[in-house]
Amino acid sequence: MNFNLPLRERVNNIKIFGILFLTLILGFFLRSFNLDFPSIGYHNMKENEYLSMAEEMQRTGDFTTRRIYFHNAFAENPDMQIFPQVPLVTYQILASWNLFGQNLWGARLFNVLFGVCSILTIYFLGLILFQSFRLALFCSFLLAIMPLGVFFSRNLQPESPGFLFMLLAHLFYLRYVTMSRRTDLFLGGTFFSLSWIYKMNFAFSALFFLFIFPYGKFFSRSRGLVKNIFALTLSYVPVLLSIAWLAHLGQWKFMQQTTIARVNLLEIFSPTYWNKYGKIIWWYIQGENFSLIFTILAVLGLFAAFLKRRSVLDRYLIGGVVSILCYSMFFSDFINQHNYYQMPFLGWVCISSTYGLLYISQLAKRAARKDVLGYLLSLVVFVSI
Q1: Which of 107, 104, 49 is nearest to 78 (CA)?
Q2: pLDDT digits 0-9 by tens, 114-165
Q3: Three-state DSSP string of 51-100
Q4: pTM score, two decimals?
Q5: Is pLDDT of 271 > 70?
Q6: Cβ-contact 210, 322 below 8 angstroms
Q7: How many angstroms separate the CA atoms of 305 and 315, rounded?
């Protein structure tokens, strides 16, 4: 903290850090509740997959082959070939067992910490987009309490670390958009690489930058085009290396019936699809993942973004819609079965909801000539808690 600042400014900084710290504590508390509860029930079969991989690696000493006891259990080599993936979550489990002993709470703690770091990251993301400490804090509060984030930040799945690295990628790419620093371009791509290595579906979140990426500055020869291309290309080398490593191990395989055969790009536009799956998708959105109030606020924020279309925030949210559309086209047969497939857009909902509240306050200010944003934010916080 800079003690040369005026007293009032120092007090404000202490308040900001205090509120942010309490938000992080809240996020940690919600995510660590029943941390050692047995791996049974809703979506915990995924946990059993990664736990089984860790046990098999520990038993065999083979730390590259993904074996699961309940997949092809009677085969000579019962390896997992449903989705090609670097078993980073399994390595997290093994690391936690070395540190804390063989238990569930230690293994889950890694993902909880990833989730708490996501709350901190979206605060800095909100600072860039809103240029407001108050609204950035509200974004972090929403992420701290959002049901989708709470549940899957403690589950042994790749969603929590993948989401954190995706947010970090967005943070550094936004820094590049606003400040044009090549280091931010490289770091943004590197964090995207880490996110995609955890789970490739986070790749679609790159489309958020479709309408805000500074193409002119990037391709300008006077601004070091070759260096820009080199920094961008180098940042995605980890993804290529991970694919090459999986191919070398013979694990870059896709089971047609569980992956490619399920992709139907136009299915999402079919009335039959929505008649069959519309209710369950809507239940995931407002019942399990975001709640009805934040779903409505997010739609309102998107409406404001389309209405204005001028700022980086507006175009970032509009790019998010393009990302959601393309993602839904590709994963139409996944989003209707698993609520965690909406995880890449959790940050978008928090930011768009905040923008929706800001838009309501702006309308109220024009009508009543009074700033009600503080009251609205306080009301939502009170109702949420």
Answers
A1: 49
A2: 999 999 999 999 999 999 999 999 999 999 999 999 999 989 999 999 999 9
A3: HHHHHHHHHHCCCCCCECCCCCCCCCCCECCCCCCCCHHHHHHHHHHHHH
A4: 0.93
A5: yes
A6: yes
A7: 7
